[in-house]
Amino acid sequence: MYEELVNGIVDLKKDLVLKIVTDLSKKGDDPLKILEECRNGMTIVGDRFQKGDYYLAELLLSGEIFKQAMIILEPFLSKEREQEKAGTVVLATLKGDIHDLGKNILGYLLKAQGFEIHDLGVDVLPELVIQKVKEVKPDFVGFSALITPVFEKMKEAEEMLKNEDLRDGFKLMIGGGVTNDDTREYVGADFQTIDAMAGVAYCMKIAKGE
Q1: 105 touches 196 (CB < 8 A)
Q2: pTM, 2 dp
Q3: Which H helix or E strand runs over 173?
Q4: Residues 166-193 pLDDT 10s
Q5: What residue numbers bound the domain in which 51 lies?
Q6: Are 127 and 94 in contact (CB under 8 A)?
Q7: What is the distance between the alpha carbons of residues 134 and 35, in angstroms, rounded to a whole number?
């Protein structure tokens, strides 16, 4: 059934994917395993997009299918992780970028590990990030990007956080296919990745004091 789930996401069969996720969840399968297989399907879609076999419409549709699957899966993930809070995370895609798939995947994965997630959404003004950081005092702040012009907003947000004497209170993470270590240095972030699982590993390592 897991192979059928992955193929369903790749072939953009929304009803099939949602049925399989529902059936597996109710049957008691490990929600993290279900999430990982959904992520595997999204990876294949991303590869096809990079090769030109899929276009933006297919990429967006697969992202919507993934979101709907996660809505079904989320209660099972929460039940799986009834434990002490691992940490608090603020996530955002900043002003000028409306892509959120990578951010959403990271959010779901972190939530499954016991982190409290505050997702500000997409096209977010840096001022809203400052406001949320003051409100929830997070351990981590994460910015995602699919287009390079948003790097300026990332840097602007980091500088505003410094000016408000908030920057030392958390680790700043950036991610997305267009980011690299040079981007991390430019923005002033502590961590950069193009892999959501690496982001989860980083947060867990820091949360454990390693």
Answers
A1: yes
A2: 0.78
A3: strand 171-175
A4: 999 999 999 988 999 999 999 999 999 9
A5: 2-80
A6: no
A7: 32
Residues 147 and 196 placed together within one structural domain of the fold: yes
Q: Based on the fold, state whether residues 14 and 29 are members of the same structural domain.
A: yes
C-beta neighbour count of 131 within 10 angstroms: 12
Q: What is the CA radius of gyration of the chain?
A: 17
Q: Which residues of 64-77 are buried (b: 16+ CB within 10 A; e: fewer)?
A: ebbeebbebbbebb
Angle (CA) 65-69-70 rounded to 5° is 120
Residues 6 or more apart whose Cβ sits within 8 Å of residue 22: 72
Is residue 72 within 8 Å of residue 21, measured between CB atoms?
yes
DSSP 12-74: T-HHHHHHHHHHHHHHT--HHHHHHHHHHHHHHHHHHHHHTSS-HHHHHHHHHHHHHHHHHHH
Number of domains, the chain: 2
Task: Summarize pLDDT for 124-165 with one digit per residue, the tens.
Answer: 999 999 999 999 999 999 999 988 999 999 999 999 999 999
**Side chain identity, residue 123:** D
Measured distance CA(64)–CA(95) in Å, rounded:
21
Tell the residue number behind the tokens 């697969």, with chain if given.
62
Can you tell me the distance from the alpha carbon of 141 to that of 137, in angstroms, rounded to the nearest whole number? 10
The β-bridge partners of 94 are: 124
